[in-house]
Amino acid sequence: MNTPPSAPGAQRTAGSSVGIGALVPLTRPGWVEAGRHLLAGLELAVREVNDAGGVGGRPLELVVRDTAADPQRAAAAVDELAGLGVAALAGEYHSVVARAAATRADALGLPFLCSSAVLDALTEQPTEWVARLAPAQSRGWQIYADFLLGAGHRRIAVAAEPSVYWASGTRILRDHLAPRGGTVIELDMRALAPTAVCDALVDQRATALVLLVGHPEPAVSIVKSVRRDQRLADLLTGAPAGQPEFAEWARLLGDDGAAIPFLRYLPERIGPLGARVETALRERLAEAPSFVAFEGYDTVTVLAEVLRSHGAGRARTAASWPRVAVEGTRGPIRFSRTPGISVWQCAWTPIQVVDRDPADPDRFRILHAG
After folding, report:
1. pLDDT, tens digit, for every residue of 347-364?
2. Smallest Cα–Cα separation from 217: which of 355, 28, 353?
3. What contacts 157, CB < 8 A, 6 or more positions away?
4. Contact 122, 142 (CB under 8 A)
């Protein structure tokens, strides 16, 4: 079932309003909490754009579709939104879903500004139609690998489920760690129960475990098993994909969810714009906003500026990616071509490795920055 649009009449994107199609995971098996934060950022920015007069005197309308982490559903939503006449697409959190959406948007000639997905190859071939705010997986996960090495870890196990995204992450870690003396040990979570992971970690003499699995399960069960095994008292458990960022992680795991490093895309110090938006997002979400909420806000900020400067024509929007120069909530936003990346890539995105403080799980500690 399609998610209702966020504003009355958003189905009718032709005429007085400018439609922005929003792809968001709002139901399981999608990462619902991430989707909720992403949508909050998108909606807040649309409201602020419209309060300031819209785009050329026309209001923005967000036409929301729930992808539910389903690539086929996302591709069908792109077709539907293109038919409704939206000026551009925004959003998506899951990399595999974003890849399906980007491929379809490229085929249809529909501009797509991807908010959160990091998979390097969002499209098989280079495209002019797609740009991305989040850093590419290769950049972020190499920084994570540097953190592991700096913390003294050389035998690193990855508990992985089958997925293009997880397989890509495993490859990035191995390629970056191997020349520097690190070893990556793969644990196939199709064959291992969470309790069996502990025996494998002991047998392999791993000093770190990286979770490349879904949330909440099996990630939560693996963490609980590892935390309760005295043989693994000194093991570092990490989650580069960001599972501990969200409040649900702390609710489900309590103290067990602390001291699990993950990647976060925020600067060490947030500026005045970011601080103002953070306050508004906190009120909207009734909790601290994640970096994903900021990504949603920045996505609409960029699209609104592009539409103001170049009009609502799809081809003009796509042609404008290399000319974007916008101040976002986390710093300046510009797009460029990056070797190995098929889409227009945001050239400046802060990357941190952080964890939840064991003394105060609601507080985040910055462990490493890149």
Report:
1. 889 999 999 999 999 999
2. 28
3. 184, 185, 186, 187, 200, 201, 204, 206, 208, 209, 210
4. no
